[in-house]
Design brief:
- By secondary structure, the protein is mainly α.
- It is 47% helix and 5% strand.
- It contains ten helices and four strands, in the order ααααααββαββααα.
Length: 255
């Protein structure tokens, strides 16, 4: 199939960021924050985004930061800025509270606790339809993928392959856990065909390196078998996220 030229139209501010939508949901579903406070924290991040933009840390807003370490570095810069500290003090610490809550969300804090036997039961409450973000244009059309969401998806699966939990992998230095990879069950290059974002919890699967390579490059029959398994695991959650597909449609997109 030849490559298609995609013309991206519309104001970037006309759609909520995927991370912003999930952050708001996290505040209510995981943290138990009131709707009024959610609005305050979201507005706080709007002001914080302007501060980060003025410092050339972001182009538009904090939600474009896709790496956890970069997010923590941005917070450090703000908390050491006298002007921000003064603004935060006058605002009764609302700005730092909103920022800290966002960093907790990005870190997956609250999803995994000692009293939570099944973290997926919590993350299922996060499954809602979300408008896709505009793609960024580089040498080709490429849709945004959040490293934060990917790392959280691996954590939710307890760093075990979702094709076969008995599959072994080496221990990764950065997590001190079995090395796993995040796989979009419906590949991101299909985003133009969907009204909802594909870079979402329900579509990100934890796979061992062998299964990840296999689902991309293995024998067609083996790949279809793996996709059948993933469909059974994720069809309901995808539907809850606004992506309703039959098994045949799912496999067609996944291939």
């Amino acid at each position: 199939m030849p490559n298609k030229t995609i013309v991206v139209e519309g104001n970037a501010e006309s759609r909520k960021s995927v991370l912003q939508a999930y952050y708001a949901r996290y505040l209510t579903e995981v943290r138990g924050v009131s709707d009024a406070s959610v609005k305050k924290y979201i507005n706080a991040l709007k002001n914080i985004s302007q501060k980060l933009k003025a410092k050339d840390i972001v182009e538009a807003d904090i939600y474009e930061i896709m790496d956890l370490n970069e997010l923590f570095n941005a917070r450090k810069v703000l908390l050491e800025d006298p002007d921000f500290v003064l603004l935060d003090t006058r605002g009764n610490r609302m700005y730092s509270a909103g920022l800290n809550h966002y960093c907790r969300f990005a870190s997956g804090d609250g999803f995994m606790t000692e009293s939570t036997a099944d973290p997926v039961a919590i993350v299922k409450r996060m499954d809602i339809p979300i408008d896709p973000e505009n793609p960024r244009i580089v040498s080709r059309i490429e849709w945004n993928r959040s490293n934060i969401l990917r790392e959280q998806a691996l954590s939710f699966a307890n760093y075990a392959c979702e094709i076969n939990r008995d599959h072994k992998s080496f221990v990764a230095e950065n997590t001190q856990k079995a090395y796993m990879e995040g796989h979009h069950a419906i590949p991101m290059n299909n985003q133009p065909q969907f009204n909802q974002s594909l870079d979402i919890y329900a579509n990100i699967v934890c796979l061992c390196p062998i299964c990840h390579r296999r689902i991309h490059h293995g024998l067609r029959a083996d790949r279809i078998s793996m996709m059948n398994m993933l469909y059974e695991k994720r069809a309901e959650r995808l539907a809850n996220s606004g992506i309703r597909l039959s098994k045949d449609e799912f496999i067609q997109y996944a291939l």
